[in-house]
Amino acid sequence: QGQPVESGGGLVQAGGSLRLSCAASRSGFSLMGWYRQAPGKERELVAQIDRGSITMYADFAKGRFTISRDNAKNTVYLQMNSLKPEDTAVYYCKTVYVGVGYWGQGTQVTVSS
User: Fold this and answer.
1) Which of 17, 32, 28, 12 is nearest to 92 (CA)?
2) Cβ–Cβ under 8 Å, residues 25 and 3
3) Predicted confidence band at 14 (pLDDT cuts at 50, 70, 90)?
């Protein structure tokens, strides 16, 4: 198995914040990442964190989004601040174990003007 479950999406006004959660089904992941996909666009990386808590962010996320992890809960979070309408998308969590990736079902984030 290994499929994660996302939560925390919703509707927020521009400039607001949301915190997304990704609960992994098992411990010991090598990498967990947040991706997003807007209508008519390709899925793109937002941020990722590895087992050593090394993080990486897409340019659009730097300074606004923060990815973190709670090893005890097998959970990764994405704190999103200063949200913009262009952040509107379905946000997906991807969990990797020994080179095999598992996608969650996604959580909708909608940012209004």
Assistant:
1) 32
2) yes
3) very high
Angle formed at CA 4 by CA 6 and CA 96, multiple of 5 degrees: 125
pLDDT above 70 for 101? yes
State how far the Cα of 83 lies from the Cα of 99, in Å rounded to an integer. 32
Given a cut of 70, is residue 1 above it in pLDDT? Answer: no
How many C-alpha atoms does 16 have within 13 Å on its Cβ side?
Answer: 15
Residue 9 neighbours by CB under 8 Å, 6+ apart = 18, 20, 90, 91, 107, 108, 109
On whether the CB atoms of residues 92 and 104 are closer than 8 A, the answer is yes
Band (pLDDT 50/70/90 cuts) for residue 99 is confident
